[in-house]
Design goal:
heterodimer, A: 266 residues, alpha+beta, Arc Repressor Mutant, subunit A, Beta Polymerase, domain 2, 3 domains, four-stranded mixed sheet, three-stranded antiparallel sheet, 14% strand, elongated, B: 120 residues, mainly alpha, Four Helix Bundle (Hemerythrin (Met), subunit A)
Chain lengths: 266, 120
């Protein structure tokens, strides 16, 4: 396709603000060459991605907001998602892996995270028709675990599944997403579960010790799998793990958990 | 000179009263004060214990769970959710911002503050 680079930049500019733009401003904001931009805009109009309206002497370029231009937003969002801080990406991937309700049609990340690389909280907007608190309550378990293990607050919100709401931030989940979970990730989820138990039982020594050891073991398995090492026994896993990590307390367990998790949920 | 932890616990009591008084006129103010009442009391406890006060909410809740008990974490987290709804109009998944819910939290917060005060 000719003028593809200009076309992509123009679409990105239009999707960002979703406002009609005077042709000259659109070209300036997109940072594209003049001649190639005119050609690209003409092509976008011909194919139905944009509409050009005349206002006095000016030509205004508007996005033709339909399912096909929306696909372009999803594509840009997937790049935005991949560019997020690895810690944020890990937290979101773990959360998404637990989405089981068919009522949730999409989820959007918005708020301070879009401006800060390491925010104190994450705002997630769940989209669906007639979502109730009970629908979101399905995620209260994983939400609590993420908050306690990783020390980040998750704020959940709900709205209808509309074009407007999809544009409130980065789309991080759609109902059409495939479930993907490898062995390392599955073991990591077990690590989260046992770390959560350790945190909750800090004042009960026996319970704490059991969950703490299980958390280390699952983290060790997860680490082994991520390094393509298949341990035959739990001792194999622990030995392999302890060549690199020594974990003496809960704080270290959480820190090393994040270090490993960021690589597993990349 | 008033000790810092005494000032914090007095503020906690003041905020708790403010939460009660505002129940009829402003649920938002009431929810906001209720969260900060308990947070102030928890801060008073850590000041009394000469511990460092974490700057972020989640870390404060976490050390509350460790040194004061899980009920402090749970209550602070739920009240924070109410406060978010009150201050920013956000929708919660824990509890709805209603007068009835706030009334239910009042005695719990009062009890948790008193339990902290017993340490001084």
């Amino acid at each position: 396709m000719k003028y593809q680079k200009s076309m992509m930049k123009i679409m990105e500019t239009l999707l960002k603000d979703r406002e009609g733009k005077v042709i000259e401003n659109l070209i300036r904001e997109s940072g594209t060459g003049r001649n190639s931009s005119f050609e690209a805009i003409r092509w976008l109009e011909k194919t139905g991605f944009v509409i050009i309206e005349t206002s006095g002497k000016q030509k205004i370029v508007k996005l033709n907001l339909d399912n096909f231009s929306l696909q372009y937003k999803f594509y840009l969002d997937s790049i935005e998602f991949k560019l997020l801080d690895p810690f944020v990406k890990m937290v979101l991937k773990i959360l998404i892996s637990q989405f089981k309700s068919n009522k949730i049609k999409g989820a959007v990340l918005f708020g301070s995270v879009l401006n800060k690389s390491r925010p104190l909280d994450l705002d997630i907007l769940f989209l669906g028709d007639g979502l109730t608190i009970r629908d979101l309550d399905l995620f209260s378990g994983i939400k609590e675990r993420i908050e306690r293990v990783f020390g980040i607050i998750l704020n959940f919100h709900r709205e209808s599944y509309t074009f407007e709401n999809l544009f409130r931030g980065i789309v991080i989940y759609q109902i059409s997403y495939f479930k993907e979970q490898n062995k390392a990730q599955r073991a990591y989820l077990e690590f989260i579960e046992f770390t959560f138990d350790s945190i909750k039982n800090q004042r009960e020594k026996l319970l704490f010790d059991i969950s703490f050891q299980n958390a280390i073991l699952n983290l060790a398995f997860s680490y082994c799998y991520s390094k393509k090492f298949e341990p035959k026994t739990k001792y194999d896993a622990i030995n392999f793990f302890e060549k690199k990590f020594k974990i003496k307390n809960l704080q270290k367990l959480k820190e090393k958990g994040v270090e490993i998790g960021k690589k597993i949920f990349f | 000179m008033v000790k810092k932890y005494s000032f914090e616990i007095e503020t906690a009591k003041e905020f708790l009263n403010s939460a009660k008084f505002n129940l009829d006129c402003s649920l938002r103010t009431s929810a906001n004060r209720l969260y900060f009442a308990l947070e102030k009391a928890v801060i008073a406890y850590f000041l009394f214990m000469k511990m460092k006060i974490p700057k972020n909410h989640q870390k404060l809740w976490e050390i509350s769970a460790k040194f004061l008990g899980e009920d402090y974490y749970k209550t602070l987290r739920e009240l924070y959710d109410l406060r978010m709804q009150a201050d920013y109009g956000l929708v919660s998944i824990f509890v709805n911002l209603t007068k009835e819910n706030l009334i239910n939290y009042l005695p719990r917060v009062e009890f948790l503050i008193k339990r902290i005060k017993k340490n001084f």
